[in-house]
Structures are given as structure tokens and as C-alpha cells.
Design brief:
Low-confidence stretches of chain B: none
Shape of chain B: flat
Number of domains of chain B: 1
Distance between the termini of chain B: 36 Å
Low-confidence stretches of chain A: none
Number of strands of chain A: 0
Largest sheet of chain B: none
Mean pLDDT of chain A: 92
Number of helices of chain A: 2
Radius of gyration of chain B: 19 Å
CATH superfamily of chain B: CDP-alcohol phosphotransferase transmembrane (TM) domain
CATH architecture of chain B: Up-down Bundle
Largest interface: A-B, 26 and 36 residues
Structural class of chain B: mainly alpha
Order of helices and strands of chain A: HH
Mean pLDDT of chain B: 87
Structural class of chain A: mainly alpha
Order of helices and strands of chain B: HHHHHHH
Oligomer: heterodimer
CATH topology of chain B: Four Helix Bundle (Hemerythrin (Met), subunit A)
Distance between the termini of chain A: 35 Å
């Protein structure tokens, strides 16, 4: 456990993909979830929690995409 | 015939010594290796060990489904393992100067508050049950990433400081459900 596993460039791209890529997929996943849940009965606590969770998922995924773009110097 | 119809199947008892809980427990094995990697300044190895810990977190649910050994204890044990592993990881990266202390302390404080509220929720529900929060599930995944951001030196300041207000909003939202709203199955 003394040598790096991969080169610095490969490691950098791994981090960008694992963060930006997963965040982008997560963003789409929770947008779809939120759209599908719009007809749920909001008087039920669990349904309200689902919608809140999906909305927060979209925010968190956006944070991930922005972070990956910042690391790349795009933003 | 009628008597036979009235016979109900007894609730299935799941032993705590099951494959899913073994996977959850195995997450703790990664922590000493993670600590050694951070202590020796090995960023990539530290990322790898925390990555394995995160993958095992995702795997235990799948194993529980595969072996049909899902239980309330297993869900609680998973939540405890999340807190212990990610709490340990955050303290280690902050101690070695890889992450800012103020957000780390805030995150650990909010995490402890959330755990205390879960205990109150279990008491109110009157049975061993796990509080399910869709928002918190997403935030826990972000927490796993937080340690990876520190080990990879990946926009650390940005990710850590953005995390704190997000966690505050979610903890406040869940606090209302856990402390005020009636637990599911409770008589009004």
C-alpha cells in the first residue's frame, strides 16, 4: 500500500466520472421519480416524504454535477 | 374449513446472524485499512477502502432480498454501520487536514441529533422499527462521497460547505415526522 494504484490523470478522470456521471444519472432518475409521484395523495405522510426525497435528490445530484464541472474548470 | 381459514401464519423470525448482516458487519473491516492509508498520505488507497465500504453498504440490501432475511434489526444495524463508518471516515480526514473541521463537526452533530430522534421515534412507535426517509437515504450516499472527495482532494471546500445546509434542511424535515407526526400504525 505504498504506490499509487493508477496514474494521477486516470485517478482524476475516475473521480470526475464517478461523481459527475453518477450525479447526472441520479438527477434524471429523481426527476422521473418526481414526475411519476405527482399524482400521489399528499395527505399521506409517506407520499409527502417521497416527493420531498426526490426533490432533495435532484438538488444533491445538481450539486454533484456542478462540483464535477468546477473540478474540470468548466465553471 | 372455517377454522382452517382462521389459522394465521406466524410472523417469520429472522436470525440476526444472517448473510445480509454479515455483509453490513464486514464494512468495519475496511476502516483500519482506510485509517492506515490516510495516515500514510495514500490518497488513492484511502479512496479505494472507503469505496469498498460504500459498495458493501449498497450490497447488504441486495443480499437481504436474495436470502430473504430482511429484518427491522438489519435495517437498524445498517443505519448504525452508516453512522459509525462515515463518522469515523469524516473524523479521520478532518484530523489529517484533508477536510475542513467546521463542516465535519456540524455534520457529526446533526448526525447524532438524527440518531437520537430515531430512538425517540422507535419509542413512540412502541416496536423495533426503522425510520424511512427518502431524502436522508440520498444524503447518506452524499456522505459516503464526502469522504471520497477528501481522499481524492476533489473540490473539498465546495462539497463540504454545501452539504451542511442541505443536511440541516433534511434533518429539520425528518424531525417533524419523527417527533410530531403520528408514527405509522398508531391509533389517533
Amino acid at each position: 500500500m505504498t504506490d499509487p494504484i493508477v496514474s494521477a490523470t486516470t485517478f482524476k478522470w475516475f473521480l470526475i466520472l464517478i461523481t459527475g456521471g453518477v450525479s447526472a444519472l441520479w438527477f434524471v432518475y429523481d426527476v422521473v421519480n418526481l414526475i411519476r409521484s405527482r399524482h400521489l395523495d399528499r395527505s399521506v405522510g409517506m407520499n409527502r416524504d417521497k416527493q420531498f426525497g426526490y426533490a432533495m435528490g435532484i438538488v444533491i445530484a445538481s450539486v454533484g454535477v456542478i462540483g464535477a464541472l468546477k473540478f474540470q474548470g468548466v465553471i | 374449513m372455517e377454522a382452517a381459514a382462521q389459522v394465521t401464519t406466524p410472523p417469520r423470525v429472522v436470525s440476526p446472524w444472517n448473510p445480509a448482516n454479515a455483509v453490513t458487519a464486514s464494512r468495519f473491516i475496511t476502516l483500519p485499512f482506510f485509517f492506515i492509508a490516510v495516515a500514510h498520505g495514500e490518497h488513492q488507497w484511502a479512496t479505494l477502502w472507503m469505496g469498498i465500504c460504500g459498495v458493501l453498504d449498497k450490497l447488504d440490501g441486495a443480499v437481504a432480498k436474495l436470502f430473504n432475511c430482511k429484518s427491522a434489526f438489519g435495517e437498524l444495524f445498517d443505519a448504525i454501520a452508516d453512522g459509525a463508518c462515515y463518522g469515523f471516515g469524516l473524523i479521520v480526514v478532518a484530523a489529517y487536514g484533508w477536510a475542513p473541521w467546521i463542516p465535519v463537526i456540524s455534520i457529526i452533530f446533526l448526525g447524532l441529533a438524527n440518531t437520537a430522534m430515531r430512538a425517540v421515534y422507535v419509542k413512540r412507535a412502541g416496536r423495533t422499527t426503522n425510520y424511512k426517509s427518502y431524502a436522508m437515504e440520498r444524503l447518506v450516499a452524499y456522505t459516503g462521497y464526502l469522504i471520497g472527495f477528501a481522499t481524492g482532494q476533489f473540490e473539498v471546500t465546495y462539497f463540504y460547505w454545501v452539504f451542511v445546509p442541505l443536511m440541516l434542511v433534511i434533518v429539520l424535515h425528518d424531525a417533524k415526522r419523527m417527533l410530531i407526526d403520528p408514527p405509522p400504525g398508531a391509533t389517533p
